[in-house]
Amino acid sequence: MTTTTAPTTTVRALRFAAKEKVAVVDAPLPEPGPGELVLDMKAAGLCGSDLHYFHMTHEEMRHATQPRSPEMTPGHEIAGVVKAVGPGVSHPRVGDRVAVQHYSGCGQCASCRRGWDVHCERGARVYSLNRPGGCQDELVVTAKDCVVLPDEVSFPVGAFLACGATTAYQALLRSEVKPGETVVVIGVGPVGLAVLAWAKAFGLRAIGTDPSPERRAFAERLGYSDVHDSAGFDIEAVVPGGANAVIDTSGNVHGRRTAVEAVKTWGTVVFVGLGPDFAIDPVPDLIMRQVTLRGMFVFSVPLMMEAVAEAARLGVDLAPIITSVSSIEEGPDAFADFAAGSVGKSVIGWE
């Protein structure tokens, strides 16, 4: 193993101690095996899926749609510095700044060879679900999951690009919206705000909707003034004829219905937000209007590399979306604030 300093054997980590309770514990840190490396953690973003488990008992976690062990450290939005590498690792190198794609596949099946580890035919391992996540001082990760960060991308933004911000980037690509056209974003949480940031960089007219006055006010403070109350939102009053593309980040029935109703003939709707239930009538909703409806889940490693490079090249304004950076010792309070409805993006940081 090549290393600058020997990795520690025990690190501080956050754990879901009980329903709606997070604790700081000591967790073991194994030596990196073949193809693995040790990250000195710098940023771990808190995501809505983390909050989903925060509200569960340990038993509920074990039997969730995506089961997780309570002994797993949360945090799948991971960025840090390579501290040590295991056998066979030539890239990235010790000292590299990296973010980590959170689905880690076998690397050999057809999906993985295309970079789509999320659809690994042998079953992907997921940071924070069935392998430790990033809310700990150091972390063993698989080298092939790492994307090197340019100096222009901070660690908190790098962690954001490891999930929500690249999800937003891919959603716009999937929508096939073109410069000068209009996109409507349903929900202006962190992913929706990232869609607005990318849309601005791409030269699009971007419109948001959200039921939360706090979220709408925060979006306006970031410079996104065309954000409307989702209650009674009338697309005809804002964009007569409808938007070229609509991206739903809400994952709820009302948001999805608004998305389908707000898109114009020949437009594209992209469903990103996770959540159950939605009734659609194919004839009036899709067929008669030539509407394309797409579902989207996570992204490939090559696409994350592309998003990181484009964020740096275009100067995409993602940093203002991050409103809170807390130390690991402050992690329990950070989760509680997140659960209470804090706006913007919350991050556990080590700088």
Your description of this structure?
This protein is of the alpha/beta class and 351 residues long. The protein folds into two domains: 2-163 and 299-349, Alpha-Beta Complex (Quinone Oxidoreductase, Chain A, domain 1), CATH 3.90.180.10; 165-295, 3-Layer(aba) Sandwich (Rossmann fold), CATH 3.40.50. Helices cover 28% and strands 28% of the residues. The strands form four sheets. Strands 1, 4, 5, 6, 9, 10, 17 and 18 form an eight-stranded mixed sheet that branches. Helix 5 crosses helix 6 (190-202) and helix 5 crosses helix 11. The longest helix has 14 residues, at 301-314. Residues 2-7 have low confidence and may be disordered.
How far apart lie the N and C ends? 26 Å
The overall pLDDT, averaged over residues, is 95
Per CATH, what is the topology of the largest domain? Answer: Quinone Oxidoreductase, Chain A, domain 1
Tell me the series of helices and strands, N- to C-terminal. Answer: EEEEHHEEEHEEEHHEHEHEHEHEHEHEHE
The proportion of residues in beta strands is: 25-35%
Would you count the extended β strands for me?
18
- The H-level CATH homologous superfamily of the largest domain, spelled out, is Medium-chain alcohol dehydrogenases, catalytic domain
CATH architecture assignment name of the largest domain: Alpha-Beta Complex
Short description:
With 351 residues, the protein is α/β, with parallel strands linked by helices.
How is this fold's topology laid out?
Elements: E1 2-3, E2 10-18, E3 21-28, E4 36-45, H1 48-54, H2 58-62, E5 77-85, E6 97-100, E7 103-104, H3 110-113, E8 125-126, E9 138-142, E10 146-148, H4 155-161, H5 164-175, E11 182-186, H6 190-202, E12 205-210, H7 213-221, E13 227-229, H8 235-238, E14 243-248, H9 253-262, E15 263-271, H10 282-287, E16 292-295, H11 301-314, E17 322-326, H12 331-339, E18 345-349
Parallel strand pairs: 11-12, 11-14, 12-13, 14-15, 15-16, 17-18
Antiparallel strand pairs: 1-5, 2-3, 4-5, 4-9, 4-18, 5-6, 6-10, 7-8
